[in-house]
Amino acid sequence: MTTSQAASPTTSPTATPSEQDLERHFDEIIARDQRIEPRDWMPDGYRKTLVRQIAQHAHSEIIGMQPEANWITRAPSLRRKAILLAKVQDEAGHGLYLYSAAETLGADRTEMTEKLIDSRQKYSSIFNYPTLNFADVGVIGWLVDGAAICNQVPLCRSSYGPYARGMVRICKEESFHQRQGYELLMTMMRGTEEQRQMVQDATDRWWWPSLMMFGPPDHDSPNTAQSMEWKIKRHTNDELRQRFVDMTVPQAEALGVTLPDPELAWNDERGHYDFGEIDWSEFKQVISGNGPCNAQRLAHRRRAHEDGAWVREAAAAHAAKHSHAAVS
Ligand code: FAQ
């Protein structure tokens, strides 16, 4: 069932439903696994959590264009350049779907952008690492898009309708991104020894930051319990991180690269791979603005925003002229 079809709050046709009636109705929709839509009443905390998560997600897609865009002008062939251009454009599209989803909750797009460039809203830690060579483009597709898919496929069942529906399309495109990354790496692994070393080096640098994308461990995640109760999130951070590790180890074996974790080993009893301790102090540094590229990413975004001011002004003037013409 995709839309909220629970019965309306049980009041007489003329009475205004009380706050408790509305809350009960909301809880019923969630309990029945139906969707909350923009017109529906929702608790303030639910709205705030969604705006926080969706805005962070949108900003991640937009800032996430930068590491790979760095290589568009230096792609090794026309084919690789066309693929990379299309991928980076897709990320822009994802950002726009997500800003639109946040707008259905009453968030203002200009304000969200200002909050991003003033560091009042976060974006994913992963995009604060540099892309040092073209193998990084492949590894971002394989690991970063791979982690994004793992995290986002369950969000297609998120309880908020516009977010869940946006995620369906985003996940389809992310799957293509993951495959193009893996195909690029396969090609490099069939190439020269130097190319194979580039792939290994990029894997070594991106593996641990990819595991950090899933967020802090469950015992240190202030938002997970409530977000699971509201069915915004369907799995905890640690569950999804484990799923990603289990999915990725065989892919690394097929590729012929070593994942940089000596503790990585299959655990028969758990039916999962064990893996080493993540450096959470590095994660905290990166999300507090002190990662290798935080300043550069935000400065670039700020500059693009300022350079685009005349386009926004022209679009607003055009819209005003047309609405004036429609009235007169
Ligand atoms: N980076 O209590 P929790 C992509 C923050 S898109 C930065 O566990 P929650 C596509 C968190 O916001 C990648 N901050 O929070 C692509 C919270 O901060 P606050 C983005 C992080 O929300 C590919 C605090 O830590 N994906 O890659 C991170 O329940 C290639 C406490 O954390 C999404 O946004 C982090 N990694 O769970 C594009 C997916 N982790 O606001 C280009 C949607 C946590 O309380 C190229 N989001 N924080 O101060 C989610 O699923 C969730 O928001 C989590 C975090 C799982 C990220």
TrEMBL record:
| GO terms (BP aspect) | phenylacetate catabolic process
Renumbered to this chain, region (Disordered) spans 1-22
> Which molecular function term from Gene Ontology is one that the record holds?
phenylacetyl-CoA 1,2-epoxidase activity
| Superkingdom of this protein's organism | Bacteria
One Pfam annotation, family name?
Answer: PaaA_PaaC
- Give me the stretches of Low complexity compositional bias: 1-18
This entry carries the following GO cellular component terms, namely:
cytosol
* Gene3D superfamilies linked to this entry: 1.20.1260.10
Residues annotated as signal peptide:
none
**Matching InterPro entries:** Aromatic_CoA_ox/epox, Ferritin-like, Ferritin-like_SF, PaaA, PaaA_PaaC
- SUPFAM superfamilies, per the entry: Ferritin-like
The record's NCBIfam families line, in alphabetical order, gives:
PA_CoA_Oxy1
Q: What is this protein called?
A: 1,2-phenylacetyl-CoA epoxidase subunit A
Q: Please name the source species.
A: Phytoactinopolyspora halophila
